[in-house]
């Protein structure tokens, strides 16, 4: 199953031939309809796939080879240009199907608002889910200039859906004062600036629980990932993000899905952002898909 049966675009390296034989499904969400600064993340999924062709199939981090994971790249969901509400419905419907079929969903963005319909689908399947959120931005606004469907709102929506105490944000270094006040007063778990050390303290408290992992590439410092729509100085290194992924993979949590969003390749002529993103996807496949 692909969205377009004549699909001839590149797929993530070592994607299996059929949907039916897969344990995990990679899918693209080429949408940047609500961005507030620089558009272009709709081109992220295709460029991440293209960059994956330069990866080694073996990971020295996980000591595993991609041949050990059965995954299928379904291509990009054909989201209607400019129609955010319908696009989000289509993502939720697709992830609903993946979960009903027993597949592990791994989404490629696209803007971060796309995580919101995934959260809803995951919550229907796993009501006790916790969310691990890696980002430069709090994403805790209720709206942006009067628009509730904005890439600055998905984590606030998640707090309302699953309870703020079940949301864990790492690496946050940007947001309105009101967002940080909400984090403090609501009981959500926000860790400013740092990722690895607070994550290692949190993971034992989530042992045995289903967790969903959402990574905004701008959690990385622009020196490591300049190709993103809203870059923020003062971020973590790619090595630290790899350490975080490994810590989750080696913990006792049950990862039930993940995404990586906000790669906007046009702002990075060196292509290092999509190269980095593709490596993170490799580690997520090897570490999270059981």
Descriptive notes:
It is a single chain. The protein is of the alpha/beta class. The protein has a single domain (24-288), classed as Ureohydrolase domain (Arginase, Chain A), CATH 3.40.800. 32% of the residues lie in helices and 18% in strands. The chain has helices at 44-52, 84-100, 115-125, 154-162, 177-186, 196-202, 238-249, 272-288; strands spanning 24-29, 58-59, 64-65, 71-76, 104-109, 130-134, 167-172, 189-192, 210-216, 254-261. It has an eight-stranded parallel sheet, with helices on both faces. A two-stranded antiparallel sheet has the order 2-3. It is globular and about 50 Å long. The chain starts with 23 loop residues before the first strand and ends with a helix. One of its GO terms (molecular function) is agmatinase activity. Keywords: Hydrolase, Manganese, Metal-binding, Polyamine biosynthesis, Putrescine biosynthesis, Spermidine biosynthesis. Mn(2+) binds at residues 112, 135, 137, 139, 216, 218.
